[in-house]
Fold this sequence. Notes:
With about 180 residues, the chain is mainly α. The chain contains seven helices and no strands.
Amino acid sequence: IPSETALITAGALAATGELQICAIIIVAAIGAFAGDNTAYAIGRYLKGFVEGRVFSGAKRRHLERAERTLKQRGGSLIIAGRFIPGGRSAVAFGAGVLHFPWPRFLGWDALAAILWALYGGLVGYIGGKTFEDNPLYGILLSLGIAYGLASLIEGTRWFRRRRRLAGLASPTSSSEPSSGN
């Protein structure tokens, strides 16, 4: 079961009194933190393999760009990655491969894990309370909100990237001389 689904479902069950929301949030944050740090450690261990096999030759520039981006926006990437399915593993693994300082990773990841656990648990809990007589509706609403937000974030990222790439690929007429501007 995907972690978001399990967390939101547990939050909805807490609204019925079957589980404790505080315990759910604490356990989810600890689990997220442990999983991210495991991915970080694996990335750190496989650094040589990743650099030598995946990013050799001309592909090395992608690794260098990722390293620059992580240095510039590491905290925001770690937090945002926690909310994107698959993103959390990629960011944590990448941070390990790129030797992002572990103490900094720990701090940002702890914040990300807590925010994610609060978000998922409370979305399920509020949905469950709203539909107390029929928790299934609460679970469905909570999952809809979670997947809707993830889709909105990913859609926005996709459109921004396309717009940026379209700006970079603006054709200049080769028959007109360049003005040097």
